[in-house]
Every structure is written in structure tokens, then in C-alpha cells.
């Protein structure tokens, strides 16, 4: 994993050593050692068989410098209808650009030696998860006590900002909800310049708790986004999560959801729109560990130009997890002859009396629907944009905050050829 410079030093290793002397020394060094054991993955590694990481491995990454956010950039990322906005730049909290911390939220930086991280899922075989632990400097811990509810969504914004040097940064978000507690947390990841970001979100839900979560990726075209989301649920809890991609060079999401209590429900969704050479890679593992749990996974991609998408997902049903009801779906809409998509849905079942289904489809714009609109005077480019938006709307309409749905719809429509002729009414589909 080390990338040595001409003077035989590794900027990231030096940064990790410096951070380890300040906090989390043993955990950082263990993560760094594991990182170097794993090395930069190649296509020979099954977990990265669809990702071309050669350009990333040949880059000498540097720790992200301290920076201030640009006001105009923040304004463009603002989402109405949310409560507190917490802004982080290069993995560090920016107090001047942020709202007052809610009572249920605390900054991670002062608690790094006290917090137990990486306890929700085992990501020891993922190099980018190890890098996230080794480099973490700050983040936010959201803890809602039993029976309480966050009155408004918390919006966490992370901006990457550097000079022309390739920089690496991370951010840790920890969400812990007590019995029957409720919360909605939104993440926005943005920024330009050659950047490697490794987001990590850990979610723990008590009995009957409900968490709505959304991660919006709006990076520039030279950003590598290698993130993870892990959730662990007690009985009768609900986790609704969606990953939305409208920017970035390579966007990889590693999601692990463990339903440990009877009657728990998890919905993990994703939508991404390609652009030029963008690659989107999703790897899901949903573990049904207790009886009568339900899960729904649906990932959709709109793929123009030379963009690509990969979906690898496994539903695991543990012995004794009877009454499991799980559905897994991958759908890809190719909008050019050069776009590509791969889907690998998997089932691993060790219990009886279960209902598990999976399916994957990849195709072009429906010629019947296109003919229907063209016959009624709709220009072809506009008709294609309408059909593409209808394809996306199934996932977009599940986004928990109405203003985020509108914000996202405008981002998608801005990238669809022919969509410039559509009026604002299409956003309400």
C-alpha cells in the first residue's frame, strides 16, 4: 500500500505515524499494518474485479491539508428542509461554516481515544476501510436516547479541498439510536481536484429504532470515493439507506447490514448516473441473523457515454432465521453503445421457510415507450430524457427528505441529454 517517493518516504505512512502519536496509536498502527499486508488491490482480487485501480495505485497520495470551505460551493450544496448543517473540510470540522451542534451530536475528534470504532462490521479485508481507520481525524457521533426523536434531519457536508497535489482524507460518522428512537441523517460528499476519500458510516439501532440515511456523492471528475456503510439492528428496528451518485471518477460503496433481532427491516438502495468514464461499484452483504426479518435492496444506474457500473450483492440467511423475506434487484439502463454494466446477485441460505428473490436486468430505452411519446409529438431527445427520469424515479422517490429529492432530481436532469426542455413539473413525478 505504501507509495514511496524519490527520497524513499511515504507521505501517508508518515501522516499515520504522526496521528498515532496523538490518538488511537495501537488501532492506527494495526490498521496500517493490515493495509500494507493487503496492498493496493488489483482485478485479480474478486472484490475489485470490475474496478481499474491502476491509476490510483500509481499515484503518490498526500495527507489532506487544512483548508477553508468556499461559501459559493456550500450554498450550492445546501438542502432546504434540513436542520443542523455540520461542515467538514478535508476530514476536519469547520465551526464557522457549521450550525450549532444539536444536543444529540458530538464531534469525534475529542473522543478518539474513548470511542470504539469498527465494531459494527468486519472490514479487515478491505484496504480502504483500513485506510479510513488509520487516517481518521474527526467526524460526528449522533446518539439519540431511548424514546427520543431528532426533530429535523442532520446534514453532514464533507468538502475536499487541496492544491494540485493528490490528497487523501476520511470522515467517520457514528449513529447510535436507543430503544424506539428516531433520526434522519444526510451526507453530502463534494469537492474537486485529485482526491481519495474513504467515508465510513457506522449505524447501531436499538429495539424498535428507526433511522433514515442518505449519502449523496457530488464530487468532481477526478475524485476516488471508496466508502463503506455498516449497520447492526436489534429487534423490530428499521434502517432505510440510499446512496445517490451524481459525480466522481470511481465511486465504490461497501455496505454491510446485519439484522440481529427478530422483526428487523433493512432497505438499502442506490442510484447513480454515469458521465464520460465514471465507474460506480456497489458491494452489498445483507445478513439475516434472526427470524422474521425483511430486507429490500434495489440499485439502479443510468449509463451514458463510456460509464460503467458493477453490482455484487449477497443475501445471507443464518441457520434458524426462519420467516426471512428478502428481495434483491439490480437494474441498469444503457444510454450509449459504449456503456457497460455487470451484476452478480447471490443467495446463501441455511434456513427453511424463507422467501428470497434476486434479479438483474440491463438494457436500453424501451422502444415501445419511445414510440408512444414520439407519436404524440414529443421530440426524441426529450422523450428519452423522460423515460430515463421515470427509470430513476423509483429510487429517488424513496429518498427521505422532499427537498433532497428535488435537489437530486435537478442534478440528474442537468446531466440528461434532452432534459433541458423539461419543466419543473417533472421533479414531482
Question: What is the strand and helix layout of this fold?
Answer:
Layout (H helix, E strand, L loop, with lengths): L10 H10 L4 H14 L15 H4 L4 E2 L7 H7 L7 E5 L2 E2 L11 E3 L19 H9 L3 E6 L9 E7 L6 E11 L4 E10 L3 E11 L4 E10 L3 E11 L4 E8 L4 E10 L5 E9 L5 E10 L5 E10 L4 E10 L7 E10 L5 E10 L5 E9 L3 H9 L4 H17 L5 H14 L14
Parallel strand pairs: 1-7, 2-6, 5-7, 6-8, 7-9, 8-10, 9-11, 10-12, 11-13, 12-14, 13-15, 14-16, 15-17, 16-18, 17-19, 18-20
Antiparallel strand pairs: 2-3, 4-5
Helix pairs in contact: 1-2, 2-5, 6-7
How would you explain this protein's 3D organization?
The structure is a single chain. With 429 residues, the protein is α/β, with parallel strands linked by helices. It has two domains: 11-261, no CATH class; 369-429, no CATH class. It is 20% helix and 38% strand. The chain has eight helices and 20 strands. It has helices spanning 11-20, 25-38, 54-57, 71-77, 127-135, 367-375, 380-396, 402-415; strands at 62-63, 85-89, 92-93, 105-107, 139-144, 154-160, 167-177, 182-191, 195-205, 210-219, 223-233, 238-245, 250-259, 265-273, 279-288, 294-303, 308-317, 325-334, 340-349, 355-363. Strands 1, 4, 5, 7, 9, 11, 13, 15, 17 and 19 form a ten-stranded mixed beta sheet that branches. Strands 3-2-6-8-10-12-14-16-18-20 form a ten-stranded mixed beta sheet, covered by helices on one side. Strand 2 (85-89) and strand 3 form a beta hairpin. The longest helix is centred in the last third of the chain and has 17 residues, at 380-396. The chain is globular. The chain starts with 10 loop residues before the first helix and ends in a 14-residue tail after the last helix. The mean pLDDT is 91.
Amino acid at each position: 500500500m505504501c507509495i514511496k517517493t524519490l527520497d524513499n518516504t511515504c507521505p501517508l505512512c508518515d501522516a499515520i505515524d504522526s496521528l498515532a502519536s496523538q490518538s488511537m496509536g495501537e488501532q492506527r498502527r494495526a490498521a496500517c499494518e493490515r493495509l500494507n499486508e493487503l496492498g493496493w488491490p488489483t482485478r485479480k482480487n474478486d472484490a475489485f474485479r470490475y474496478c481499474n485501480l491502476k491509476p490510483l495505485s500509481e499515484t503518490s497520495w498526500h495527507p489532506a491539508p487544512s483548508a477553508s470551505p468556499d461559501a459559493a460551493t456550500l450554498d450550492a450544496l445546501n438542502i432546504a428542509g434540513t436542520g443542523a448543517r455540520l461542515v467538514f473540510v478535508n476530514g476536519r470540522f469547520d465551526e464557522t461554516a457549521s450550525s450549532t451542534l444539536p444536543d444529540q451530536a458530538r464531534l469525534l475528534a475529542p473522543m478518539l481515544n474513548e470511542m470504539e470504532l469498527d465494531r459494527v462490521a468486519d472490514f479487515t479485508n478491505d484496504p480502504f476501510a483500513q485506510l479510513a481507520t488509520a487516517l481518521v481525524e474527526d467526524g460526528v457521533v449522533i446518539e439519540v436516547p431511548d424514546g427520543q426523536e431528532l426533530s429535523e434531519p442532520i446534514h453532514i457536508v464533507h468538502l475536499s479541498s487541496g492544491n494540485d497535489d493528490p490528497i487523501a482524507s476520511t470522515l467517520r460518522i457514528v449513529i447510535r439510536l436507543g430503544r424506539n428512537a428516531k433520526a434522519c441523517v444526510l451526507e453530502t460528499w463534494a469537492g474537486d481536484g485529485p482526491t481519495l476519500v474513504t467515508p465510513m458510516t457506522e449505524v447501531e439501532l436499538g429495539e424498535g429504532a428507526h433511522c433514515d440515511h442518505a449519502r449523496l456523492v457530488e464530487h468532481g471528475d477526478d475524485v476516488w470515493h471508496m466508502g463503506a456503510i455498516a449497520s447492526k439492528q436489534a429487534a423490530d428496528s428499521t434502517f432505510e439507506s440510499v446512496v445517490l451518485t451524481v459525480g466522481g471518477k470511481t465511486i465504490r460503496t461497501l455496505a454491510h447490514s446485519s439484522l440481529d433481532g427478530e422483526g428487523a427491516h433493512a432497505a438499502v438502495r442506490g442510484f447513480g448516473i454515469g458521465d464520460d468514464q465514471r465507474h460506480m461499484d456497489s458491494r452489498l452483504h445483507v445478513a439475516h441473523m434472526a427470524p422474521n426479518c425483511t430486507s429490500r435492496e434495489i440499485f439502479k444506474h443510468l449509463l451514458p457515454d463510456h460509464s460503467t457500473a458493477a453490482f455484487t450483492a449477497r443475501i445471507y440467511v443464518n441457520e434458524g432465521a426462519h420467516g426471512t423475506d428478502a428481495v434483491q434487484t439490480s437494474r441498469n439502463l444503457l444510454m450509449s453503445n459504449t456503456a457497460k454494466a455487470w451484476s452478480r446477485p447471490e443467495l446463501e441460505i441455511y434456513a427453511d421457510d424463507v422467501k428470497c428473490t434476486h434479479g438483474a436486468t440491463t438494457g436500453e430505452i424501451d422502444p415501445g415507450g419511445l414510440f408512444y411519446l414520439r407519436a404524440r409529438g414529443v421530440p426524441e431527445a426529450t422523450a428519452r430524457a423522460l423515460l430515463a427520469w421515470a427509470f430513476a424515479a423509483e429510487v429517488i422517490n424513496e429518498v427521505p427528505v422532499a427537498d433532497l429529492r428535488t435537489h437530486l432530481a435537478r442534478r440528474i436532469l442537468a446531466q440528461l441529454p434532452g432534459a433541458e426542455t423539461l419543466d419543473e413539473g417533472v421533479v414531482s413525478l
